[in-house]
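Weekly puzzle thread! Below is a chain. First person to post its structure in token form gets bragging rights.
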Amino acid sequence: MRMKWGKWLMVVVIGAGATGLGVAWDLMLRGVPVAVLDQGDLGHGTSGRFHGLLHSGARYVLTDAVAARQCQTENLRLRQVAAPYIESTGGLFAASPDVSENLVQNWLRGCHDAKIPVAPASPVQGMNAQWKRIYEVNDGVINGYQLLQALARGIRQGGGQILTHRRVVGARPMKGKIHTIVMEGPDGLEEMRADAVVNAAGPWAGHVASLWSDPLPLTLSRGIMLLFSHRQTPKVINRLDVPGDGDILVPHHHISIWGTTDTETDSPKAPTPSHAEVAHLMERGLAMFPDMGEWRVLRSFSGVRPLYRAPGNLARETRHISRDFVVLDHPLKGAFSVIGGKWTTYRLMAEQVADRVAAYLHYATPCQTGAVPLPLANAVGVGADPLLCECESVSKSQLRAFEGLSLSDLRTRTWFGMGPCQGTFCGHRVMQWRSHQIGEEAASKELAAFREERERGMCAALWGDNAVEWLLQRNIRFQSLGESQRADD
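Winning reply:
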């Protein structure tokens, strides 16, 4: 094991999700040298598994006034500094006939108190005609993967490092202060000098904090979502009620995402959705959209939320835990953790972490992320060469911009394999392209992992066109393309 990374480094951020990259971007703008480590790729955890909603805050006014105000403030700020990655769809809140008028009026007062603009609105096509109390708010949609790439590009342009596929396995102190981070990467164990470390590892934050023997007040909650093949509405649609399962529909590019659930879990790894969970979401959806059963479902997926359980909060259900966040100083000097929060509030979370770290390191430069726009993400147009993924219009030219990444990482950078065919055709094409870089055997292993991930999301929602697509995929893979089939399939 050797100190591969130079002694100049001051701050190590663990986690390349929205919060971790946001912290690094903030510190870099203050002139603080920084490096980001992640056990996977950008958005490996919660940041790559969300419904894409830029919250107005209206969802939380009945139960979490602090989170509601934070969301509204950051909603407006992100529209300024991250405009290329925000779609201003607007959002509707619709109350079912079963919701009391008193609750609606309390919701309206809560929106007023949080300075969330609200106006009466008309229903969109496909909504239940019995839901007549409808209001518009300034919800939007976040292009999460591109925003993460923009943050990463800005960090690198400023001289920061982003080291993916490095799992932190140790932290060595010196004289009561953080001194060295030990990580396991492609070249084995490596050490990195650090004057401060920020634990922004999301669901894995508890594990990271255990490396310096200081447990976190962390509760994990898993949420299941459904992805439909078409953009079913022009706006975000919310159920006007106390937050519950299946009450948000988000249009995202040419698809729609419906969710979510909220169940406590012990594992930071996103679980495979069950058919029962998917059926529950569909049942909730049919009440709001009677034709949802006829929409073509592509797959289900899940994410794990890291929630901060405040002292004295004995709530049995994770829905009763605030979506606020907290920044913690550890007894090991120079070690900080941030837990809780939402995608919408990532910039605010990063600012408060960076304030704490900068003060510790005696940097006086204030936060600039509220005014400095993010750089443009790597924008690679479709080249003259043929498309490798027709569903998402991904060409070989686009893949070349990320040459060296695995199939899994290429998927999240370019969206190949995420369209209606779920990689049925493009998976094999991209594998052939990868085989020229890493060899046929290694590329075949990547393809098997890619297929397994895509199929896992499809299998919990095998009905209608999705079931037909699944059978077609298997016939093409195992008969036409001759892929190896596992004995347990």
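Puzzle host: Confirmed. Bonus trivia for everyone else. The chain has a mean pLDDT of 90.
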